[in-house]
Amino acid sequence: METNRRLWLKKIGIGVAGIGLTNFNSFASPLVSENLINSFEDDTNLIFLRSNENPYGPSPLARKAFVDNANISNRYNWDVATQLISDLAKKNSVKDENILLGAGSTEILDLVAKFVSLDKGNYVIADPSYDYWTVTLDNLGLTKNKVPLTTDKKINLQAMLEAVNQNTKLVYICNPNNPTGTICERETLVEFVTKISQNTIVLIDEGYLEFTTQQSISNMVNDNKNIIISKTFSKIYGLAGARIGYAIANKTIIDNLANLQSNTNNSVSVVSKLAAIASLKDDKFVSNCYLLNENVRQYTINELKKLNCECISSNTNFIYFSLSNYNKDYFKQLENNNIQGGRIYEEQGKWTRITVGKMDEMKKFIKALQ
């Protein structure tokens, strides 16, 4: 936990020369110990390749927004929320009424879980997929219906369609999928969503879509009351620690979700909202992150293949690969080289996931495995 905070502060630029905040200690209250301030410094040389964070972010504009606006944190931020919602609506070609803000897409997913659990039944999810958030569904009494991936690790939309029954309250699609990095073709996904949403709610998690050239299906919410899209600033925008995400849905769904949010659109701090507004204006930063990730990801895949690790073609900032033919203790190699990686997701084939960091980090990762 300490390491996570240290890395987050590094990423938002606190103490970094050139962005206007030169001495973090000067902001510390006398009641804050020097040891606590020093604990934010990262002196471990840790390579953090576990949580699919953007190693290049936040953008320079977002960093400046953090620093320039720290002094208004004593004010509530309703007006800022209104501006961000308007910007997001324009970006996604919907109306302001189709947007709901949350503290990361995690809060959005949690609100959806609470909403669909008002009536008991089941939910359908690919296996493996991003399922940490589904503990809320489980605790609220819904039954999990897991659908295996195809042999090439793609979401099996036809099998998911067949898994839906009259008691299904939600179908969840992570696109691109986490942890496999595979993507559903947009035309096929639209056809699937159109069918499923006739009788049940469909949640499309587009957390990693900005790492692709595929267009969002956000336009579908205008005419469909059973589609919810979750999006986040945590990945390509590099604001994971700032905790900001949003939902796109028909006004009816947005209103229902908002009724379950204790302080609608205001669980996100004022500086995080301003950083998000700034991030949306920094197209160059997003483009650079996309290109850098493409280059480093391909290098890493090529090197992993040389180590006899089968890799799944990725559409994200992480790689899913098999350790079944790797002849060393993978996790011990990471530990010995101060690298935090993923875990085993599928025992058959020993499939694991690694985040794509900067080029120098991935070269150290490959060297650690050799």
Descriptive notes:
With 370 residues, the protein is of the alpha/beta class. Helix content is 37%, strand content 15%. The protein contains 13 helices and twelve strands. The chain has helices at 2-12, 34-38, 60-68, 78-91, 104-116, 135-139, 157-163, 186-196, 251-258, 270-280, 283-306, 330-336, 359-369; strands at residues 47-48, 99-102, 122-127, 143-148, 168-174, 201-205, 227-232, 245-249, 318-322, 339-340, 344-346, 351-355. The strands form three sheets. Strands 2-8-7-6-5-3-4 form a seven-stranded mixed sheet. Strand 11 (344-346) and strand 12 (351-355) form a beta hairpin. Helix 3 (60-68) packs antiparallel against helix 10, helix 4 packs parallel to helix 10 and helix 11 (283-306) runs parallel beside helix 13 (359-369). The longest helix is centred in the last third of the chain and has 24 residues, at 283-306. The protein is globular, with a radius of gyration of 21 Å. It starts with a helix and ends with a helix.
Number of strands: 12
Computed structural class? alpha/beta
Radius of gyration: 21 Å
Q: Report the total helices.
A: 13
Report how far apart the termini are.
29 Å
Name the helicity range. Answer: 25-40%
**Low-confidence runs:** 1-29
Order of helices and strands: HHEHHEHEHEHEHEEEHHHEHEEEH
Residues in β-strands, percent: 15-25%
Mean pLDDT equals: 90
Which word captures the global form?
A: globular
The major pleated sheet works out as:
7 strands, mixed
- Biggest sheet strand line-up: 2-8-7-6-5-3-4
